[in-house]
Amino acid sequence: MTLYSEPVAATRSTGRRERLRAETTAEIKRTALQLMGSGGPDAITLRAIAREMGMTANAIYGYFATRDDLVTALIEDVYTALADAVDAAWAASAKDAPAQRIQAWAHAFRDWALANPEGFRLIYGDPVPGYQAPTGGAAPDAARRVCVGIAALADTAWGSAERSHGDGDFDWDDFDPGLLGKVRPAFPALPPAGVALALRMWGHLHGLVALEVYGHLRAQTLSPDKLFHAELVQLIRSLGLVA
Amino acid sequence: MTLYSEPVAATRSTGRRERLRAETTAEIKRTALQLMGSGGPDAITLRAIAREMGMTANAIYGYFATRDDLVTALIEDVYTALADAVDAAWAASAKDAPAQRIQAWAHAFRDWALANPEGFRLIYGDPVPGYQAPTGGAAPDAARRVCVGIAALADTAWGSAERSHGDGDFDWDDFDPGLLGKVRPAFPALPPAGVALALRMWGHLHGLVALEVYGHLRAQTLSPDKLFHAELVQLIRSLGLVA
DNA sequence: TGCGGAAACTTCACGCCGTATAGTTTTCGC
DNA sequence: GCGAAAACTATACGGCGTGAAGTTTCCGCA
Q1: CA of A199 to C1' of C11 (A)
Q2: Domains along the sequence of chain A with CATH
Q3: For residue range B131-173, what is the model confidence (pLDDT) as tens digits?
Q4: Residue contact B196–A226, C-beta within 8 A
């Protein structure tokens, strides 16, 4: 996850001031992520960022109205990076091998989380002291992308999974319209029960990964890899697929 | 969850000073939990607790060496309360109805989490700014109790679940000896694959509940109840049981 | 009964934090 | 070349955890 890299050459199209501003904004976020990587999410303080950058803490207020705004921006970017990672794994997998596609997606998800534990905490945990998530913005977009990604898993397997996961009397208005606005056009064959299956699969993967990232799993098992693999084998089997 | 209630009568056996001390300790914890309930885990500050109790922040240092120690004590107590809740549900369920027992346990888990979201975050999330979990103590004990509880679920169902969950080449040394020290004597018939099943079930339940508690699920579905119920139905089915 | 010492608690202090206000320097557009 | 806007600094406030030192209260023992 290399975010906010310096531009190699200045673009002449936009003004110099504007460009500097964008670069500084990127540097602030880059520094924040760097601090988070070395000292956890709590290390994201305006003063520490400013110290690192050789400025005053208040200078950051020219770029972010508040610390929460900065955190929000970070969450958006990190969440987008996660969505990119799993989308890429999905796109790179063979389209005619559902079981492998699902494994590729799930492993991309877990690998990203283990490689960016602070990012995972930032997205799915209590991000930072006193932070209140705003409504709207890019983070819900990325969240939706991840959900749509899981819906793709469910859709790929739905032909064989319908037999065992088809009931549960789910209805379209059990789900958020915004989610359905993305899912239904993309996967017209997926019924409400399929979306429910997707959310449940999300829960399964999230649970195992969250327990691992937060250290609860390592206290019980010495081989979380094996456990995750078993989980996937079982998931694929339960979807009526063969690996 | 009513923790730290005042003693109805003073016990004569211990000295007055000692008793007062225990009461004050309980009051500190009670106040901390109360603050957490009204303002989230971030509201647990020594100064706020002291303010609430009409003392100085530094007076608390007579009872807890550091803020993290206080948080650790809270985690232990809250985790124990969770373990008590699920254990009670398990004990109260009919012993000859595995499917119902599992449902009872799982619902107790989710209900407790939804009723004590801050407690859940305290246990399973980033508890509080900058908090570092110590090694050892009562929290791992409670964690183990929960794990043993899930192992009980797996054990109850193992007769029918073995057919579909029996493989995966797990070994005893894939697991923490401390966990096995509790699990193996309690459930002698449960093989390594059964313990792995238990941990995976833990992951499933944890994932769904965590997504719900942290608000990620509500952004996608309007009926998490239904989703959780479908999850249990599917779990029970996958264990080879009938509800 | 009185006294020594421990325990409980307060006061003051330090350095951290987010952030508001006001002032200063730099830079762009005309 | 100049006026305005943008970028940044200085100073300040209140809140945080925590350390050191001082004060009061109370228990156990002679």
Answers
A1: 56
A2: 1-64 (1.10.10), 74-238 (1.10.357.10)
A3: 666 665 557 889 999 999 999 999 999 999 999 998 888 999 9
A4: yes
